[in-house]
Structure formats: structure tokens, C-alpha cells
Amino acid sequence: MDNIGYPWLQAYWDKLSRYQQQDRLPSALMLVGDKALGLSAFATAFSQRTICLSVTTSGMACGVCESCLLFNAGNYPDFFHIEPEEGKKSIKIDVIRELIESLALSNQYAKPRMVIIDPADAMLHQASNSLLKTLEEPSDNTCLVLIAEKASKISATIRSRCQLITVKDIDLSKAKLWLEAEGCNQAEQYLNLSNHLPLLAYDLWKKEALAVRVGIFRDFMAMLNGQLDPLLFAEKCIGLKNLPALKWIMSWLTDAVKVESNVKNLHLINPDLKDDLKVLVEKLHLKNIHDLLDKLAQLINLESSQLNQQLLLEDFAIECYSLTIKRKV
Q1: Start-to-end C-alpha separation, the chain
Q2: Is the pLDDT of residue 140 over 90?
Q3: Of 140, 249, 308, 319, whose CA is between 20 and 30 Å from 11?
């Protein structure tokens, strides 16, 4: 990690820096993007730059002034990082009320007071309503930074009072260099595998996910060839703890459609599997692949539900298997 949080976010750092240089830092910002982009670290780094007493010529926090030393020690009085309690998923109204009470007091330093709420959609309904009053009547010399994966998860009234910054077009060349510096010698493949989310790519690399993905792909093809029981395939997928098996299957089917349309390797999620993907198209009719993609999208949306995931996956595997058996008949 560097001084701006992560290097692939440089363009967004420059945008926020211009707000400061022109002395028009908004009273509320909302950073919208996947958590695997590193928005929490980015917001923290930006907060430190804002409170720094001696910003460097390159626009970074100096790290050695009184404010930076207090910030790095977790003792800076005008910085608040609101997040769910350990082991919890939501931010309760009591936490927001405490924040509002603190914001009612004067700043201890002349620099803007910084507040990060991460993730903003973790706020319970009452907490959101309580925060809304603060957004409608913002405290002097204070900037709230709300972080959300999807803006639609935040109430329209809160969104309307924030300067929205959607983070999606990142510098992939810098993400690749960062991964390589961390020791990953398959950075481009892992970025493809993670749908260009650098921190997810890093996590997958640590779990040697490329090799695992190839193994489960071989199992998928064996199932389509009638060489592996679909229930056993489903069991293997369920056994891949914390690895996105369903998203991998979706990427194979998506790439299979692209292969059928002669899309160049550059646009494939799994370019290393191109030859096998041609076989996949032969095994499953193109219309069947589109139907399976629709079903997969539904399964992925249900992953966080209380429904039995293994039964859902078994049903999907049996459908894939039956489609190839029907074609043989």
C-alpha cells in the first residue's frame, strides 16, 4: 500500500486533491465501488492528507507532523472512522448519535474534521435517519466520507446530499505492477480472474486460485462428458471455501459465448482455457448456455440467503449434465 491507499486509484486521488487545493472540500462525499478496490484505505489516506500540517509537494501527507503522528497512532481527535462492531454487520443508531454529539463540539485543530462511515449501507434505518439530519445541517469545517458498494443501497435522500464519486475505471497497469511487487508472477491472470478487482486478485493469488480453478474446470468438463456424477461436482464446488466457484462457472459460460462469436483473447476472462471453451460450446447448445447463465445469476444472488446452497448447486449441475446427455441421445 502506498500513500494514496493503492496506486490504481491515483486519478481519484487527484480529483479529491483538487477539491482541497481549491478550498472547496464538500461537507459530504460518497465513494461508490467494490470493497476489493481498496476504498477504505483510500478514504483513510485522504483523511490523513486533509489533516496533515505539512503536505508534501507531491500532494501526500508528510507522515511526521504532529497531526500525522497522532493520526497514525489512532489518537487524532478530529478523525472518526465509523464501522460495524467486530463480528457484527450493522451500524446502530447509538454509534451515529455519539458521532453527532462529537460533531456538535468545536474542532480541536484548524484543519477540517474528517469522518469515514464504512460501509454506509451497514447503517440501520434509524441510524440513517439520524445521520440525515447532520447531512442537512452539516457541521462547520467537517467532511463526511461515506463508502458504499452500490449507491442504490443508500437512501436517495442521503445520496442527494453527498458529492458522488463512482470508482470503476482504475489503472490496471498500476494494479498489475503492485501485484508483481507483492510477489505475484501471474498478476494479469489473477486480475482477469477477479474481474479486475486488485485486492480480490491478491486474495485469490494467496489461495493459489488459478490452479484450483483449472482443477474444477476439468471436473466441470468431465461432468459434461458423463465422466463425473453431477452431485459429486456440486459437492466439490461447495468444498471450495471462500472461492467464487459459481462466478468461475459463469465466466466459463460467458467466455464460451464469446468464443462462438470469435472474440479475441484479449476480451476473454479465461484466455488460457480458450481451446477447452470451444469444446464447451460443442457440448452445450448456445441457447442452453444463455439459459444456464440466467440460472447462475439467480444462484449468485441467492448465495447470501438462508436457502440450502448445496441443493441449489446440485440442481444446477444436474441440469448441465442432463443437457449434454439429451444431446447424445
Answers
A1: 56
A2: no
A3: 140
